[in-house]
Amino acid sequence: MQLKQEKPAENSAAVINEITKLFETVNLPRLADEGLYMGIPHSILAGFHSALDKQCTENEEKRFSNRMRYAGIHRERVEETFKWDDNTYPLAEKGIIEKILTIDFIRQKKNLIIPGPPGTGKTMLSIIVACKALRENFSVRYKTSHDIITELQESRIGKGLSGYINKYKSCDLLIIDDLTYVTPDKKTAQAFFSIIDKRYNLKSTVITSNTSMKEWAETFPDKSMCSALLGRLQEEAIFLNMNGAKDMRLQREMDMLENITPLEQAVN
């Protein structure tokens, strides 16, 4: 059966529609008027659309790279790089990773708590979530606990603490990696609590930790404040328990060693 042949006018109309969509996307409404392009030969329209589409894509990638750098992320991670199956995280709720990767918890202003030993993928997953959020125009900040505690201490000394707290209270997604790697003094712990308190039920926070939440209390000098902190983080939070998982980094190293040929071993 012979396929229906599109008329040149239909082709031009489709291209004009795509051109106006692109101009709407980059917020140039005056150039999104279809009437501007009527009567222009289809070949010229097609070339213009191709060049415009390429430029918009390049501009978006530059914008994304700048936003990623500002967020504190140096390399984009995508969902396809995170490999797991039903046996990878034996203590995790079934389907929880798929749920996390929808990033709906950010839209719902819920927190995400990821405890587990080193090398199990906590940081990689949190960065994948951050990059997906950036792609959807959420504001993101990524910090290790060491960096955020150090910067809070420096802000206190330089009397810029309120500005630092305000910066981190307002972003849509705040990721604090390896929470218990550093023990803050009492005043710095109070400042950290203030960030979490101001985000309470308003913004999403991701916490990764090598220890359980019960053990977090040993990290903070004020036990009552720690209890309040945990309460704010846990309320309606999503939990991904990575305990019981293998060390992925160690496994990759072992796999590489197993793939070395006898000749390579002899040379080495």
Task: Walk me through this protein's architecture.
Helix content is 53%, strand content 8%. It has 268 residues and is α/β, with parallel strands linked by helices. The protein folds into 2 domains: 8-61, no CATH class; 79-249, Rossmann fold. The protein has a 5-stranded parallel sheet. α1 packs parallel to α2 (42-71), α6 (145-157) runs antiparallel to α7 and α8 (186-199) packs parallel to α10 (223-234).
In short:
With 268 residues, this protein is α/β, with parallel strands linked by helices. 53% of the residues lie in helices and 8% in strands. Strands 2-3-4-1-5 form a five-stranded parallel β-sheet.
Q: Give Rg in angstroms.
A: 25 Å
What is the class of the largest domain in the CATH system? Alpha Beta
- Shape, principal axes of CA atoms: elongated
* Overall mean pLDDT: 86
**H/I helix tally:** 12
H and E order: HHHHEHEHHEHEHHEHH
Strand order in the sheet with the most strands: 2-3-4-1-5
Give the tally of β-strands.
5
Number of domains: 2
Strand content: 5-15%
* N-to-C CA distance: 65 Å
CATH homologous superfamily placement of the largest domain = P-loop containing nucleotide triphosphate hydrolases
